[in-house]
Structure formats: C-alpha cells, structure tokens
Amino acid sequence: MHLPTYWLSLAMAVVSLASLALAWRISRLPAFPGRLSFALSMLAVVWWSATVAIEHGSSLPESKVFWAEIAWIGIVPTPGYWALFIWDYINGQRRATPRFVYWLPLAAGVAICAVALTNAHHHLMYAQTIPTGTPPAMMINYIHGPFFFVVMFSFYALMLLAELALLAEVVRSSPLYRTHYLGLGAASLIPWIINIGYATKTITIGTADPTTFGFLAMNLILYWLVSQRQLFDLLPIAQDILLDAVPDPVLVLDAAGRITESNPAAQRLLGAEPLEGRALDALPALKDALGPLDTLAAGATREVSIGDPARYFDLGQEILSYGGRAVGRLILLRDITHRKALQQQLREEAIRDALTGLHNRRFFTEIGPVLLAEAQRQGTPLAAAMIDLDHFKRLNDTHGHAAGDAVLRATGAFLKDSVRQSDLVFRLGGEEFLILLPRTAADQALRRVDEWRAAFAAKTIDFEGATLTATFSAGVAAFPDDAAAIDALLSHADQALYRAKTGGRNRTEG
Description:
It is built from 18 helices and 15 strands. It is α+β, with helices and mostly antiparallel strands. Helix 2 runs antiparallel to helix 5 (77-91) and helix 5 (77-91) runs parallel beside helix 8.
C-alpha cells in the first residue's frame, strides 16, 4: 500500500477507535441529560470513520465506492444525534425526548445509504465517480449530484439550529454553565468548518473527506471537558424554577455542595456576586446558618438566622435527582423576619404585666426554675423578696382605683430603678411583687430590700394634683439556706412577708 493511502486508512481507524472509546466512557458515566444521544453520535462517528478507513484501504474502484456509500449509515446520524444531544442536554431534565426519536437519525442514514447504493440507476447522489491513479494508490474523485447537496444543506441547517440553541443558553445561563455551553459550541464547530472546507474544496487531504479528523479533534476536546472540567457533573438543574420574581432566597447546590444557581433575593441577602460556582465552605456565615443539611428531611423546615442585624428564615430543601441518583439540592429560605418579630412582640406581651410593664407570674414560672438550676450548678445563692403594699385596699377606697393604679405603676417603676441589671422584678398580681436576686445571700438581700423599703416610704406620688404616699412590707428568703426548690423558696419568702405584715407593716423580715 502506498504510504499516503496507508496513513489515511490508519488515521481513520484511530478516529474510529477513539470515538468508540469515548462512547464507552460516556456510557459509564452516571446518567445525565443527553447521555444516550451523545453516545449514539459517537457510535455513528465510529461507523463513518471505520468505513472511510476500509475505503482507503481498498484497491478496487468498486470496493471504494461501495464503502463510501455504506458510510452514509454513519454520516447521516452523526449530526442528527449531535443535534439531539444538544437538545437533550439543554432541555432533557424538563421534558424527556420520546424514545422513537432516537431511531430517526439511523433510519434517515439507512434511507440515504439506499439512495447511494442505487446511484447507478439515477445518479442523484453522485453524478460521476472517477478513479484517479493506479492501485494501490488509487483514489476516487466524486462528482456530487443534486441529492448530495440537499443532504448537506439539511446537515448544515440542523447543526446551525443546534449552535443557535447553544448560543441562546450562553446568553441566558449563569456563568457556571456558560463555559460549558461555550465549550460544547466551540467543539462542535470544528468538524463542520472542516466539512464546509471539504465541500468547497478549500480543505483537502487528497480526495479524502477530512471531516472525521474534525470529529477526532472534537472528541478530544469533549473528553478533556468531561475528565478535567466536570462537563456533566454540573448539570443544568432547576433553571426554570429560579424565577427572578421569587421574593425569597433560593439556592441550588450540586452534589459537591457548590452553588450552581441562585436568584436575586439570595444574592441580595448574601451580598456576594456571583454566587455560582462557590462552595458553602467559602461562605462560612451561610454554612453556619444552614447547619447540617443532611439532617433536614425533605418537606421539613428549620428556623435559621442570617446576617447582622439578623433576618429569620424557615429553611427547607428538596433533594434533586436524575437517573436514580442525587445530583444536588434546592434550598428555599422563606423570610419570616416579620412573623418572628410579631411572635416576639406577642410573647413579650404575654409575659409582661400590662399596668406596670414588669414581668408577670407566667414569666416567673418559666424563669424561676432556670435561675435556681443555674444557682445549683454554679454553687451560688439565689434570694427572693416578696413585697406587698400596705393598706392598699384603704388607698383604693379613699382615692379610687385610678389612684391605686398610679401607686402600682409608681411602685413598679421604683423597684425596676432600684434593682441591679441581673435582678428580676415581677408583679404577681394585685399589690403583690416579687424580686429574684441571683448571687445574693439572705443577709445581703435583707439589707438591700430594707433600704428600698425605707426609700419608698419617703417617696411621694403625684396623682391629679394630689400627693400620695405608700409603704410596703417585705419577706426575704434565700437558696440554699432556706429552701432547695423554687416553690419552697417562694413559700418561705411569703411566710417572712406574713410576719412583716403581722409585726406592724412597713417592715422587712427574713
């Protein structure tokens, strides 16, 4: 065999084997949109390049023409399956391609091959097939017929549509996917530029069709994209869900925890653009807020806070899967900041006395055991002072309930101004008040409360032009000397208050 012919045949065989290897490699990857059509496109290239290799390895004109005609079974499906792959990759997750569609490129290839095999009867595919040279270096010069140009025009139209679809995705997609679409588009242009050069006789290798060399280059680029750039690891998932109009932050993470999609609300919340392609580890505030996502079941929610000042969200997620495997997760952060503020306001109202603004008995039942447990754990005392206004009924009867309310408000304000920041003042009901004093022994509490008693007795209260005065009696007890439980502590202080009342009022007892 003459060296150039041998080299062409060997090169076509390499293209065929490389395409077969890539088809096998793609078939072994986890399922992704377009995997089947991509593998079928590579198998079509295998057929095409193998028949070209046999054609250039043949020495008889009839054999060369026969294998050139048989090659159409691979030539025709190659662009068909490639265009189908582009469609599947862009749209396959949203709408599955009907199975019968995958038979159409092959059926078209068989039909056009039949036209080529019967060319001697109509000359639609080849006007002439002219042998040039002598065996074993004989080549065939094909003078194309009208049907050949119809087929080629269809090829170019199909590939143009595929390139336009890729271009549209480049424009509308996020930066993370944009490089993938550009890579696909650039790679797919190579064989068709070469094919146009061959059809116009501006790119030639003897009389051989060099298009399969273009497919070899395209395959190598795609293999690099697959192996080095994770072309099919970052799937175009949930693109239609993330509408700009969604008011709540939405994120889509891939299986590796990288952000693949985000809406404007998420970008405004995190103040980091672009978010696409960034791992959660690169956004520690977000990672800490979201917590362990694997512990959050689909359909469940968890309250989280993000930012300073904090905004509150109900965190929910849905696991995204394709082909039976998890490919990522959709994170929805529903803003509940207003609801949280309202809840806090309602809770504050529920634990506050409406008249004096002090904490009420309900809050005491919540916080009392907590303070006692803390004192037990730290080994520190906890004092309780029960306070009751003296002759309060007489005050109401003499000056009216409005005056009584004024005295209660003044008492609450006096006690609140007198205590430390760590102390807690409660209005238990009527004219009865309670003060809890952490880290305060009984004798210390007794002195402090008696100082308050004396100061309050000297205080005057203005009410509608009148000057009112009031006194209170107090009973003091402390943990651990007097009681070991919060109810017992309160009972002990109440007994001391009773002694102060029966001892003449305006007194402090312990």
